[in-house]
Amino acid sequence: MFTSNPFAELSASIPPNVMQGYVILMVLLVIGGTVIDMIHKKSAKYFFENAKKAKKNAKRTVSGGEKVGLAISTVASEVLTSSEFCNPKRRLSHLLTMYGFIIFVATTAIMIFGYPTPEAPTPAILPQLWHIGAIMLCVGGYWFWFFIRVDVSAEGVTWFRLVRADLFILSLLATATFGLIWSYMQSSQGASTWTTIFFALFILSSTVLFGSVLWSKFAHMFFKPAAAFQKKVTKADGSMENLPAEYDLSDPEVHKKFPDIPEYMGKNPPNMGLGIKREAPRHY
Question: Whole-angstrom Cα distance, residue 109 to residue 234?
């Protein structure tokens, strides 16, 4: 199972060009869904208008070299390591799901386009990575779904309550789960009825995943890095997205500007701590 290319075995019943055409169709659905999502929600318009407003309110000019540094920092922090998650369990779950998905999708495309038939021997590492990626995705995704979701872990909502926002994670988990089961059934039973059923479920769930971009959270993965980068730029240029500046409450200059601070809090106010982050929100 772990060393065999499931798509090469599938070529006995489905021509490689049909499999390749399906992958291309899914890519087009993602692109089209993302573009329609941008037009419908006007997210791109808001992003550029917000960037224009921030540039107008900037207190200093951020150089090109500094922007490159901020971009590298964004990729290394928010994208590659998901440092925006304060909860280490949520962060690990996200990383497992993200990297599992990338490995799973990348190896799928490589095997379908590069090694679509048994006549083109597939390097053993590719199906191994395909299965590992699917397992990583399932571990991270199911961990999130059953234990980490805020409405389950903090609000006492049952894990089986479904809303439209769950379409992305559920179709993602279904794709990886049915893909693993189909691969196992194909390697153990060949072209049996159960193999066909689980392959059909694998195709159905993947079609829902890539075809429902407009109604799911799939598109947010493209906006998240851009928003994180823009936030770093607004901090660097001083515009701060029109938010108040971060003051040192013990600074005499701050006391002059805000006389009520020393009057009500003293000249050296204590550190108020992390506020809402001091304890887990489990008050249901």
Answer: 38
CA-to-CA distance for 242 and 221, rounded, in angstroms? 25
Would you place residue 181 in the very low, low, confident or very high pLDDT band (cuts 50, 70, 90)? very high
Direct distance between the N- and C-terminal alpha carbons of the chain, in angstroms, rounded to an integer: 45
pLDDT tens digit string along 25-82? Answer: 999 999 998 888 888 777 777 778 877 887 788 888 888 899 899 999 999 988 899 8
pTM value?
A: 0.81
130 contacts 107 by C-beta, under 8 angstroms: yes
pLDDT at 261: 84
Q: Kindly list the distances between the CA atom of residue 269 and the CA atoms of 256, 257, 278, in Å, as whole numbers in the listed order.
A: 15, 16, 19
Structure-token pair, residue 31: 């692109």
Other beta carbons within 10 Å of 74: 21
Are 258 and 264 in contact by the 8 Å Cβ rule? The answer is no
Give, in order, the Cα–Cα distances in Å from 77 to each of 23, 85, 229. 31, 11, 10
- Residues 197-239 have pLDDT tens digits of 999 999 999 999 999 988 777 777 777 888 888 888 888 888 8
**How many helices and strands, by DSSP H and E, does the chain display?**
12, 0
Going from the C-alpha of 69 to that of each of 60, 65, 72, 77, 124, the distances in angstroms are 16, 6, 5, 12, 38
61: tokens are: 């000019």
Residues with Cβ < 8 Å from 17, sequence gap 6 or more? Answer: none
The helix (run of H) or strand (run of E) holding residue 192 is: none
Tell me how long the chain is: 284
Angle at 11 between CA 6 and CA 13, to 5 degrees: 110
Report residue 33 as tokens.
Answer: 């869904």
- Write out the two tokens for 60: 């200093």
